[in-house]
Amino acid sequence: MKSGVKYPLARSTRELEAGELVKLCSNESPVGPSPKAVEVLKQEAEKVGEYPDPSSIEPKKAIGEYLGVNPNMICMGNGSDEIMDLACKIFIDPGDKCLIPIPSFSMYEIACRVNLGEPKFIELSDFQWQTKGLLEALGDVKLAFIGRPNNPTGNSIDEDGLRELLETGKPIIVDEAYAEFSDYSVVDWTKSYENLLVLRTFSKIFGLAGLRIGYSIGGPKVIKALEGIRPPFNVNRLAQSAAIAALEDEEFVQEVKNMIITGREYLQEELSKLDFRVLPSDTNFLMVGLENLEADAPKVCDYLDENGILVRDLTNFRGAGPNWIRVTIGKPDQNERLIDALKMFKEG
């Protein structure tokens, strides 16, 4: 049997043993789903003996209204991870190269490799996006992944740079998992660029990570191709119903966004005071550098773990390394607890 690429999990024995850990390691929503979504889940639970709509028609309608696109431009997935896998199936053949800027989301590499593709990594110099290098790297690849905003750096390639990449005609997957925390999106560009596929998820601002539901937006040809190989019943009925309710609760989503932005600004300021390097971010997380500390990421993470706080060690993240951690923005009290713990760590 051949071994696949392992996804780097951020769980500990302490997490499994205790329910009061401050979990700031997986970029989940600290407040969970909308109360309206929870209520719908309770009602829908009585129907789990029935198969879901195999075409996810109602969620597509709701998403179409939310984004201002035709529902026929949408393909639903069991998380956006599934759509990454499906996209690799339609865009690459065994041995073809996929362009992956690093550091970025580990699933890009996994989707490429499980479909027998060859990742072509291009390092973001000092974690900044440089269009020229990306254009040069595109020459011999069949598909490119671009996180916008990018995980774990929290920043993005600018619109002009992305447009230059798209003008090459190469298929580009733009992962907008964190778009709701930023003020930019290229969903509308899918009406003009047939080689653009945009990914979205309900796992972040909508707080539905445990239900596994994501989607893609693209032109007619690519969506038809994805639908042609998508398994039926791939999105369960609980996820479909909760997603619709989550989209309808606009007030809740705005409250979550406001809380995250306030928390992000607080952590940026407090971490900087403690002499951490904090990269600018348009997301619900921060990439934090430890160069000015006499400690590396494993040591910092172990200390926080012992104090009931989980953050992501980026030692094994391609393009990051042992001087970096990633911190998810939590509730105000969770953010304060993190800062207090890091102050104690620095005091020795």
UniProtKB/TrEMBL annotation:
Catalytic reaction annotation: L-histidinol phosphate + 2-oxoglutarate = 3-(imidazol-4-yl)-2-oxopropyl phosphate + L-glutamate
Known EC number: 2.6.1.9
Signal peptide positions (record): none
Pathway annotation from the record: Amino-acid biosynthesis; L-histidine biosynthesis; L-histidine from 5-phospho-alpha-D-ribose 1-diphosphate: step 7/9
Biological processes per GO annotation: L-histidine biosynthetic process
Modified residues (N6-(pyridoxal phosphate)lysine): 204
Sequence ranges assigned to domain Aminotransferase class I/classII large in this UniProt record: 21-342
Required cofactor names: pyridoxal 5'-phosphate
GO molecular function per UniProt: histidinol-phosphate transaminase activity; pyridoxal phosphate binding
The entry's keywords: Amino-acid biosynthesis, Aminotransferase, Histidine biosynthesis, Pyridoxal phosphate, Transferase
Similarity comment: Belongs to the class-II pyridoxal-phosphate-dependent aminotransferase family. Histidinol-phosphate aminotransferase subfamily.
Protein name: Histidinol-phosphate aminotransferase
Organism listed in the record: candidate division MSBL1 archaeon SCGC-AAA261C02
Gene name per UniProt: hisC
